[in-house]
Amino acid sequence: MSSTRQNKISRLVQKELSDIFQKNTSSLFQGKMITVTTVRVSPDLSVAKVYLSLFPVKDKEAFITYITSVESQIRYELGKRVRHQLRIIPELAFFLDDSLDYIENIGGLLK
Protein backbone atom coordinates (compact mmCIF):
# COMPACT_ATOMS: atom_id res chain seq x y z
CA MET A 1 0.00 0.00 0.00
CA SER A 2 1.33 3.38 -0.90
CA SER A 3 0.37 6.51 0.95
CA THR A 4 -1.10 9.67 -0.50
CA ARG A 5 2.25 11.43 -0.07
CA GLN A 6 4.05 8.67 -1.99
CA ASN A 7 1.53 8.93 -4.83
CA LYS A 8 1.91 12.71 -5.04
CA ILE A 9 5.69 12.50 -5.11
CA SER A 10 5.56 9.70 -7.69
CA ARG A 11 3.42 11.83 -10.00
CA LEU A 12 5.66 14.87 -9.48
CA VAL A 13 8.85 12.92 -10.23
CA GLN A 14 7.24 11.26 -13.27
CA LYS A 15 6.14 14.62 -14.68
CA GLU A 16 9.50 16.29 -14.15
CA LEU A 17 11.54 13.34 -15.45
CA SER A 18 9.35 13.19 -18.56
CA ASP A 19 10.09 16.85 -19.18
CA ILE A 20 13.83 16.32 -18.58
CA PHE A 21 13.94 13.40 -21.01
CA GLN A 22 11.97 15.38 -23.60
CA LYS A 23 14.14 18.51 -23.41
CA ASN A 24 17.51 16.70 -23.30
CA THR A 25 16.75 14.08 -25.96
CA SER A 26 19.16 15.39 -28.58
CA SER A 27 22.08 16.23 -26.31
CA LEU A 28 22.10 13.61 -23.57
CA PHE A 29 20.07 10.69 -24.91
CA GLN A 30 21.27 10.46 -28.52
CA GLY A 31 17.90 11.36 -30.06
CA LYS A 32 16.02 8.41 -28.54
CA MET A 33 12.41 8.73 -27.46
CA ILE A 34 12.11 7.89 -23.77
CA THR A 35 8.77 7.60 -22.00
CA VAL A 36 8.48 7.46 -18.22
CA THR A 37 5.69 4.93 -17.73
CA THR A 38 5.69 4.50 -13.94
CA VAL A 39 7.50 5.85 -10.90
CA ARG A 40 7.32 4.07 -7.55
CA VAL A 41 8.70 5.84 -4.49
CA SER A 42 9.85 3.97 -1.38
CA PRO A 43 7.98 4.63 1.91
CA ASP A 44 10.85 6.78 3.23
CA LEU A 45 10.82 8.78 -0.05
CA SER A 46 14.55 8.25 -0.60
CA VAL A 47 14.47 5.91 -3.62
CA ALA A 48 12.40 6.21 -6.78
CA LYS A 49 12.12 3.26 -9.15
CA VAL A 50 11.62 4.68 -12.62
CA TYR A 51 10.23 2.45 -15.38
CA LEU A 52 11.11 3.59 -18.89
CA SER A 53 9.79 2.69 -22.31
CA LEU A 54 12.34 3.18 -25.12
CA PHE A 55 11.33 3.54 -28.75
CA PRO A 56 13.98 3.42 -31.47
CA VAL A 57 16.51 1.39 -29.48
CA LYS A 58 17.96 -1.95 -30.60
CA ASP A 59 19.76 -2.96 -27.39
CA LYS A 60 17.49 -1.71 -24.63
CA GLU A 61 19.49 -3.18 -21.74
CA ALA A 62 22.64 -1.38 -22.87
CA PHE A 63 20.72 1.88 -23.13
CA ILE A 64 19.32 1.44 -19.60
CA THR A 65 22.93 0.95 -18.46
CA TYR A 66 23.85 4.20 -20.23
CA ILE A 67 20.97 6.06 -18.56
CA THR A 68 22.08 4.66 -15.20
CA SER A 69 25.59 5.98 -15.87
CA VAL A 70 24.24 9.54 -16.35
CA GLU A 71 21.88 9.21 -13.37
CA SER A 72 23.76 11.87 -11.41
CA GLN A 73 23.13 14.48 -14.14
CA ILE A 74 19.45 13.52 -14.32
CA ARG A 75 19.10 13.66 -10.53
CA TYR A 76 20.83 17.08 -10.44
CA GLU A 77 18.40 18.41 -13.05
CA LEU A 78 15.47 16.91 -11.13
CA GLY A 79 16.77 18.53 -7.93
CA LYS A 80 16.85 21.96 -9.56
CA ARG A 81 13.21 21.56 -10.61
CA VAL A 82 11.68 20.17 -7.40
CA ARG A 83 13.87 21.77 -4.74
CA HIS A 84 10.96 23.76 -3.32
CA GLN A 85 8.57 20.79 -3.14
CA LEU A 86 10.87 18.06 -1.77
CA ARG A 87 13.30 18.11 1.11
CA ILE A 88 15.23 15.05 -0.11
CA ILE A 89 15.72 14.37 -3.80
CA PRO A 90 15.22 10.60 -4.22
CA GLU A 91 17.89 8.38 -5.68
CA LEU A 92 16.84 7.14 -9.10
CA ALA A 93 16.86 3.49 -10.14
CA PHE A 94 16.00 2.92 -13.81
CA PHE A 95 14.26 -0.19 -15.11
CA LEU A 96 12.98 -1.25 -18.51
CA ASP A 97 9.20 -1.34 -18.80
CA ASP A 98 8.42 -4.28 -21.04
CA SER A 99 4.64 -4.23 -20.60
CA LEU A 100 4.09 -3.00 -24.19
CA ASP A 101 6.18 -5.87 -25.56
CA TYR A 102 4.18 -8.27 -23.41
CA ILE A 103 0.87 -6.85 -24.70
CA GLU A 104 2.07 -7.16 -28.33
CA ASN A 105 3.11 -10.75 -27.69
CA ILE A 106 -0.30 -11.62 -26.20
CA GLY A 107 -2.07 -9.87 -29.11
CA GLY A 108 0.00 -11.85 -31.61
CA LEU A 109 -0.79 -15.11 -29.85
CA LEU A 110 -4.50 -14.37 -29.82
CA LYS A 111 -4.56 -13.71 -33.57
- CATH topology call: GMP Synthetase, Chain A, domain 3
What is Rg?
15 Å
Instruction: Please identify which CATH superfamily we are dealing with.
Output: K homology (KH) domain
Biggest sheet details: 3 strands, mixed
The tally of strands reads: 3
What structural category do the secondary elements indicate?
A: alpha+beta
End-to-end C-alpha gap: 37 Å
Judging from the principal axes of the Cα atoms, what is the shape?
globular
Strand content: 15-25%
Order of strands in the sheet with most strands: 1-2-3
Helix content: 40-55%
Name of the level-1 CATH class: Alpha Beta
Folded structure, characterized:
The chain has 111 residues and is α+β, with helices and mostly antiparallel strands. The chain has helices at residues 4-23, 25-28, 60-69, 71-82, 99-110; strands spanning 34-41, 47-54, 91-96. The chain has a single domain, classed as K homology (KH) domain (GMP Synthetase, Chain A, domain 3), CATH 3.30.300.20. Helix 1 (4-23) packs across helix 4 (71-82).
Feature tags:
111 residues; GMP Synthetase, Chain A, domain 3; three-stranded mixed beta sheet; globular
Tell me the layout of helices and strands.
Layout: H1 4-23, H2 25-28, E1 34-41, E2 47-54, H3 60-69, H4 71-82, E3 91-96, H5 99-110
Parallel strand pairs: 2-3
Antiparallel strand pairs: 1-2
Helix pairs in contact: 1-4
